[in-house]
Specification:
By secondary structure, the chain is mainly α. It has one domain. α4 packs antiparallel against α5. The longest helix has 26 residues. The chain is elongated. 27% of the residues are buried.
């Protein structure tokens, strides 16, 4: 089971990295550029730390599914991912919006982008992490 959890986590890491590029690098790029006072300059960003955190979160997501979800499968994985994504996305998007001067498009996209990313992650672990 550990091998499948690690493989699932690595698949989720790749998917999240690609989707993060689309969401943050393409969709939200102009919103980020319009609020430079909220972000580190690109030269000061800690890219390696960002990838390490995504990797660890991916492995945790896969581990939670592998060790605590019964009746594993694609459908169950998608439901798990969407619920997990909603729980995390609401806090990330609208929780941040409640205390930071973010443009609404950032809060909205953080929230629902997270739901989509986690739905995709659930699909992947549903395929890979099986008994």
């Amino acid at each position: 089971m550990i091998k499948r959890i690690v493989l699932g986590g690595l698949a989720v890491f790749v998917a999240w990295s690609v989707l993060d590029f689309v969401i943050h690098g393409l969709i939200l790029r102009s919103a980020y550029m319009s609020t430079p006072e909220l972000w580190r300059p690109e030269a000061e960003m800690r890219t390696i730390l960002m990838y390490v955190t995504v990797l660890l979160a991916s492995l945790a997501f896969s581990g939670l599914y592998g060790w605590f979800v019964r009746n594993k499968g694609v459908g169950t994985g998608i439901k798990f991912g969407l619920l997990y994504g909603f729980a995390v996305g609401i806090g990330m998007g609208y929780g941040s919006f409640s205390v930071m001067p973010l443009p609404y498009i950032i809060a909205f996209t953080w929230c629902w982008g997270t739901v989509i990313e986690c739905g995709v992650a659930g699909y992947l672990v549903g395929l890979i992490v099986r008994e």
